Amino acid sequence: xxxxxxxxxxxxxxxxxxxxxxxxxxxxxxxxxxxxxxxxxxxxxxxxxxxxxxxxxxxxxxxxxxxxxxxxxxxxxxxxxxxxxxxxxxxxxxxxxxxxxxxxxxxxxxxxxxxxxxxxxxxxxxxxxxxxxxxxxxxxxxxxxxxxxxxxxxxxxxxxxxxxxxxxxxxxxxxxxxxxxxxxxxxxxxxxxxxxxxxxxxxxxxxxxxxxxxxxxxxxxxxxxxxxxxxxxxxxxxxxxxxxxxxxxxxxxxxxxxxxxxxxxxxxxxxxxxxxxxxxxxxxxxxxxxxxxxxxxxxxxxxxxxxxxxxxxxxxxxxxxxxxxxxxxxxxxxxxxxxxxxxxxxxxxxxxxxxxxxxxxxxxxxxxxxxxxxxxxxxxxxxxxxxxxxxxxxxxxxxxxxxxxxxxxxxxxxxxxxxxxxxxxxxxxxxxxxxxxxxxxxxxxxxxxxxxxxxxxxxxxxxxxxxxxxxxxxxxxxxxxxxxxxxxxxxxxxxxxxxxxxxxxxxxxxxxxxxxxxxxxxxxxxxxxxxxxxxxxxxxxxxxxxxxxxxxxxxxxxxxxxxxxxxxxxxxxxxxxxxxxxxxxxxxxxxxxxxxxxxxxxxxxxxxxxxxxxxxxxxxxxxxxxxxxxxxxxxxxxxxxxxxxxxxxxxxxxxxxxxxxxxxxxxxxxxxxxxxxxxxxxxxxxxxxxxxxxxxxxxxxxxxxxxxxxxxxxxxxxxxxxxxxxxxxxxxxxxxxxxxxxxxxxxxxxxxxxxxxxxxxxxxxxxxxxxxxxxxxxxxxxxxxxxxxxxxxxxxxxxxxxxxxxxxxxxxxxxxxxxxxxxxxxxxxxxxxxxxxxxxxxxxxxxxxxxxxxxxxxxxxxxxxxxxxxxxxxxxxxxxxxxxxxxxxxxxxxxxxxxxxxxxxxxxxxxxxxxxxxxx
Length: 920
Description:
Blueprint: H1 6-10, H2 24-28, H3 57-104, H4 109-113, H5 118-133, E1 137-141, H6 165-168, E2 173-179, E3 182-192, E4 198-207, H7 208-248, H8 253-267, E5 273-277, E6 283-286, H9 288-294, H10 312-320, E7 324-331, E8 334-342, E9 352-358, H11 360-385, H12 392-403, E10 410-416, H13 417-420, E11 431-438, E12 451-452, H14 459-466, E13 470-472, H15 479-482, H16 486-495, E14 499-507, E15 510-519, H17 528-565, E16 576-583, E17 590-598, E18 604-614, H18 616-633, H19 639-659, E19 670-677, E20 682-688, E21 694-696, E22 702-703, E23 709-710, E24 722-726, E25 732-736, H20 748-760, H21 766-777, E26 786-793, E27 801-806, H22 812-826, H23 833-850, E28 855-861, E29 864-871, H24 891-898, E30 901-907, E31 910-918
Parallel strand pairs: 20-23
Antiparallel strand pairs: 1-4, 2-3, 3-4, 5-6, 5-9, 7-8, 8-9, 10-11, 10-15, 11-12, 13-14, 14-15, 16-26, 17-18, 18-19, 19-20, 20-24, 21-22, 21-25, 25-26, 27-28, 28-29, 29-31, 30-31
């Protein structure tokens, strides 16, 4: 920006007619108050410059201001010191008078003057008062000036030094004298009796040394304040000089004049128009290029912008003074890019400065460059924005959304049905419209979800057959496209869609579908360059769609494998009413699993587990663990022993994986195992690194029982502990995996509290509980598998249980048979009497012969008839084939033949041999 004023501004205005070539003196220009070079004295006639002339204007100002500030600060310090000393002397006078008057008017002072030895009374009191009041002396004297007290005892009895006559008249005397203890400020006050007669005098004073000390104590503060004032003043001066230095660029008057001349020459030599408009929309300056570009008259400077014959929009912009950046205006046949800024933004005069640049040729080049840049930007966005999820449908939608409206007005993506499910493309099957996007919602194109069979003459079918993009520039003149659907084709043309590009979605040699780009708003049809862009855009999207297809196939395989390993139906049992949910993760199949296992004695085992990781490896490992739990549960092991065996199994699996160089160890699997007995209503639970179970009491209260948390499976080294819960009938036990209570947004503690709140408002049935929990806690896109198992407890009625204590006597076997027969008759199970007597006879006989006291028999009437024989021995019988010559060994064989199942389980007090028979 060039700032002009006075005659300097007028000297730059063009005269009428063409601008003449500047003479050297005219080219340099004259400033108001400057002396032309022709009038300057020769160099040898100039007076020598002073040293200050070698310093810039800003530097000279700084030096002068610093000297002035320094003088002001010194004067202020001297005045402050004098004022402090004056104030100190005045304070000394006031203190002396106050002390002397206080002592003179003190009780007992008049009486002490009549004492034969007044010094003995006044001396100690005067010294004590002197020290308390911090004066240098307190002297008591008679009316003749003879001292009764003094800081120096040898001065007592001598004549007081000072003026006492006014005090004898009842006045107060203050003076500065040189006394016996040096120069001082003292006060003399009279001591009056009750009649007002002066009977003595008291003098108190402070020496000059003490007064000076007080002033000296204040002097450092005064000097510090003066130094701070000097620093602040100097800093302010430096800032002012710095701004002046920035404004003048450190130049002196001669350099500034020369710079102005150079700027004037450059202003009229640049190939960019410069216009300065001042107040009242008056043109102050227009350089040569501005005259040429705007075709201004010769006397344009000084006239109103509206009177220069400019186009209305250009005149409005230049006269308004508003900010403009590369605003294009048509001036005759030129496209001018105008930039305009106000001049008063930084304290300058009001007005505006505008620059004009001829961009006629550049506009055409920049248009082509902008088109290329936009295409590159769209391809870059395609690489970043397409394929953000491994979902085939969503990837197709991302392609359609990206291309509208940047490339086409409508985009449709049609894929083979097999691609959507992750399979190979089957060209004999119809395509399905998977995604569509457009500038309007009412276009008469096939809707999303509809199956489409393209005719052979359609551009889409030709693109699929040839594997190349097909351009149909004018749909109204394309009978092959119209043959697809005559009625719909007419509606499309009537809607305004007039041009089409069909590009096959190819991933290598595999054709996944076809993408159609439709144009409606832009009147020009698609061209060859746009065809190439469409091919490259679809090629990038095809890679993402193929990746999503492959992932979908693997995901479906993993889900199929996992679901095949999970229980398809729950076993029949009466101890628990069970509902469950299993939801695989959105990102990949995990290793969550659950199971319900009927055990002997009408008991039921519940198990949930989680294998860390996702994919086929986790699903396969989950199947191995579930099979192991089935096998271990058949042994009727306690929960803690079963988890210990699982721990060893996972450790061995890890060792095998490490030996094979696998990068997916199983370490981190968790499990919770619970056994519920409907007879005793006790539930025994153990867990290995798994979240604790939740318990809903019959009254609806929710709690998380304190079950000891063992280490995850595979770590080894620590035993597992159990917790035994007494559950009222109707209680609901909730088992789950960590995907339900833990995610990236919240920790497990917060998740447990949210689960507690959901369970508190759940219905009474397990099915309602599952539905309520998942509605409240299930995320939109779960990142981990979720397994949920809800079991409501039942109790076996007491009239379905029969129990007898058996003495260790073979004769008791007959009594047992008789008792069981009566009980079976009571249960209407007479058909099972014979087989039950044979089974119990053999089991009780073995217990009496090989077991130990006490012996107990229990018969349960559940879904089956269960016979149990308890004894205190830990030895277990085993089934064998007896030889023809053996006298025994056929009892258990007979039990196995007569019963549906039989087995042995161990208890802390011994063992139980049991057998089950189906009910008739």
